[in-house]
Amino acid sequence: MKKAFLILVALIAASVLSAASITVVSPNGGENWQQGSVQRIRWSATGFNGKVHVILYQGSTRIGSVVRDINVSLGYYDWKVGQFVSQNNPFSPGSGFKVQVVATAENNFNPSDMSDGEFTISALNIDWARLRDMIKKFMYKPDPFPGCPQCFMFDLKPWLEELIKFRKFNKIDDDIAWRIELRTGGAKLIELGTIGGRGAKIPADGKLKLSLNDNQRSKLQSGNLMLVILDARGKTLTQILVQAEQLK
């Protein structure tokens, strides 16, 4: 009798677990969300009252966690598109995205669902011409650094201030990294650092100490330089022709 009772309990438990389900409602295929906008991810669930994670995939590649440990009963999460609590791979706008909503491990069972179809995340509508106009008026002058003949201090404060204003104007999240390079003849001359994200930052005061070899020094003196802004994956976002004062 006791054995029959235990079997019955096990069957009931298995039935409850198998009935637990999650269904992604949105995005479910065909949407076009702009990076930086706030979009509502929605789901429905039956059979449990635990917590879920929301994860973004591009194809079979896990990009990162949109949100973790959110109550499934809420049924939605308002996502600032492109912002993650943790990342597994670099993110950039494109197509082929899906969202997965999955129950957390402490539920002892993990119902989940993924978008039925793929959706698109479009790039920010950025007025790069405005940025070029803002920055090209500034000249830069590498100044010799005391005690280091091959070192120069670059005062990038005017550039940095304009870039920060521009990012705020376009509502670009601090988690979105821009890598800044100086190039000449299409080749990278110097990497100045990043704004946003987790990379090596350009100092807040805009002062950057760089060690230049003779070849780099000669190219700097040529004045034919491009300030290049790239995204996290190394894609060029824009190039700005800049002018240099002559090195002393």
Q: Report low-confidence residues grouped into runs of 5 or more.
A: 5-17
Radius of gyration: 25 Å
Strand percentage lies at: 35-45%
The level of helicity is 10-25%
Q: What characterizes the major β-sheet?
A: 7 strands, mixed
Domain count: the total is 2
Structural class, judged by helices and strands? alpha+beta
Quick one: overall form?
Answer: elongated
CATH topology-level fold name of the largest domain? Immunoglobulin-like
The average pLDDT value, as a whole number, equals 79
Q: Helix and strand string, N-terminal first?
A: HEEEEEEEEEEHEEEHEEEHEE
Q: What's the CATH architecture of the largest domain?
A: Sandwich
Regarding CATH, which class of the largest domain?
Answer: Mainly Beta
Number of strands: 18
The tally of helices reads: 4
Write a brief structural summary.
19% of the residues lie in helices and 44% in strands.
Describe what you observe in this structure.
This protein is of the alpha+beta class and 248 residues long. It has two domains: 2-122, Sandwich (Immunoglobulin-like); 128-244, no CATH class. Helix content is 19%, strand content 44%. It is built from four helices and 18 strands. The chain has helices at residues 2-19, 128-135, 157-169, 214-222; strands at 21-26, 32-34, 38-46, 51-58, 61-71, 76-80, 86-87, 94-103, 112-114, 119-122, 139-140, 143-145, 148-155, 178-184, 187-195, 207-211, 225-230, 236-244. The strands form four sheets. Strands 2, 4, 5, 7, 8, 9 and 10 form a seven-stranded mixed β-sheet that branches. It has a five-stranded mixed β-sheet with strand order 11-18-17-14-15. A hairpin with a 2-residue loop joins strand 12 and strand 13 (148-155). Mean pLDDT is 79; it is low at 5-17.
